[in-house]
Amino acid sequence: CKNDTVYFLKINGCQGVEEFENNSGINVYPNPSNGSIYITADKNVNMKLINELGQVIKTFELNAINTHTVHVSDLDKGIYFIIDDQKVIRAQKIIVE
Prior knowledge:
Layout: E1 26-29, E2 36-41, E3 45-50, E4 56-62, E5 68-71, E6 78-84, E7 91-96
Antiparallel strand pairs: 1-2, 2-5, 3-4, 3-6, 6-7
């Protein structure tokens, strides 16, 4: 004698992840990169490039007038973050290939 149990799951609507909006005032391109990234900001701010462990890899100053170049060819492949030196919620994820 075989006892098969069948379960049905009813799903109401579609759940998902909303699209991420970059409202940090920081623009990074190209992203991902394996050479250099270019960063623009909406105001003058000191920034840090950190790895996934929170270790500071590089520091630099952005201003609202110029595009800043950060060389990433010397970094290991992975995910890094650019954060505001004041620890305000101004962050941008970058990927180094």
